[in-house]
Amino acid sequence: MYANTPTTGRVLSCQTLPGDYHLLRLTTELAADLQPGHALRIADADWPVLQTTPEQGWVDCLRRGVSAPDADAVVPVAGPVGQPFELTAATARALLLADDDGLASAVFLARALRGWQPRVKPFALFELTPPLPFRPQPSRIMTPGLPAGVIAALPLLEDWKIPSRIACRHDEQPGCFIGAVTELAAGWLGISQGVADVTIFASGGDQLLAMARNLADVWQLACQLRPIPLR
């Protein structure tokens, strides 16, 4: 879905991060319409939304593998792109799964769930390809059911007191799990005191979404799968 009227935005900043990621901040009148799972089409490329501040009229987007506009550039903007997560369907515990392309949407979702009522306890697992766009830190949040030594966490979520872990399928990285993110998820589900109150929220590419769907089927869990449009 796109806004009916084409709009423009001004790029406030663009930061290049490891892994060929770009963190883009721009002003847009669409800021108030954006929800977790949405992207914006900016200068003919789709950028997943990381956060939005409607009161100030700007949005942060994060994407890898695409050229970013220069700071102060005025660019065409359309959106929202994609289907947002249905936060009203969240249960007491939320298992967030994301790959490189779904990273921004998962962080946006975690941000939204922090203050959600009735209360939701998120647990975020990321399957990422090094080099990572951030420096992982050892988690201070005890999370049963995970292999010893798997302690690498996303710093921003640590600040929010949301547990997270990172899987790198083929590359050994300090504190990260070597393998599929759903293997970590299955370990956590296996020691949980019942899982009927867990909803899976998955964002990313086809492989990640297929694994999340299979995990939900095996454990008979509610799930929301959101492909990330990357034009």
Report on this structure.
The protein is an alpha/beta fold and 231 residues long. It has four helices and 13 strands. Strands 1-2-5-4-3-6 form a six-stranded antiparallel barrel. The protein has a five-stranded parallel β-sheet with strand order 11-8-7-12-13, with helices on both faces. Strand 3 and strand 4 (45-53) form a beta hairpin. 42% of the residues are buried. The mean pLDDT is 94.
Global shape: globular
Q: Write out the CATH superfamily name of the largest domain.
A: Nucleotide-binding domain of ferredoxin-NADP reductase (FNR) module
Percent in strands: 35-45%
Number of domains: 2
Secondary structure tally: strands: 13
Mean pLDDT across all residues, rounded?
94
Number of helices: 4
Structural class: alpha/beta
CATH architectural type of the largest domain:
3-Layer(aba) Sandwich
Highest-level CATH class of the largest domain: Alpha Beta
C-alpha Rg (nearest Å): 17 Å
List key phrases describing it.
18% helix, Elongation Factor Tu (Ef-tu), domain 3, 2 domains, 13 strands, 5-stranded parallel beta sheet, 231 residues, 6-stranded antiparallel β-barrel, alpha/beta, 4 helices, Rossmann fold
Topology overview:
Blueprint lengths: L6 E11 L3 E7 L11 E4 L2 E9 L4 E7 L9 E8 L11 E7 L3 H12 L6 E7 L9 E2 L13 E2 L1 H5 L4 E4 L13 H11 L6 E7 L1 H14 L2 E6 L4
Parallel strand pairs: 7-8, 7-12, 8-11, 12-13
Antiparallel strand pairs: 1-2, 1-6, 2-5, 3-4, 3-6, 4-5, 9-10
Helix pairs in contact: 3-4
